[in-house]
Amino acid sequence: MCDPNKDVIMTLSPQSFRNTLIAVMALAYTAISFGAVATPVLARDSGVYYRVELGQPATETRAIAAGVAWSCQGSTCVAKKASSRPVNACKKLVRELGAVASFSANGKPLSAEKLAKCNGE
User: Fold this and answer.
1) Which are the contacts of 85, defined by CB distance < 8 A and separation ≥ 6?
2) Which residue among 3, 48, 65, 103 is least enclosed by CB atoms within 10 Å?
3) What is the 8-class DSSP label of residue 12?
């Protein structure tokens, strides 16, 4: 039995300390990995092909246009590559979400002429 009047000092053996450290590192790695997976699409650019700035904030966070799923946050929307040309993808997005202020495909913005065509001007 333990005498409550005596101080008890607990020590870890080197092997126990090593095992505990490995467990803590594994938990930290898991938490970091989960955070990377759970990061919203707008924060990660992997797989993003189209990037759009709408004339006003989107009312929905998700939309389907040009055969792809668009993810929106505020007035910014992104999507993976579709099979249609960028100006056609833009036109279809305008029908779903409204006027587009800027549209880029693979990091290349549409020209002013194509952007006007996209918005039906």
Assistant:
1) none
2) 3
3) -
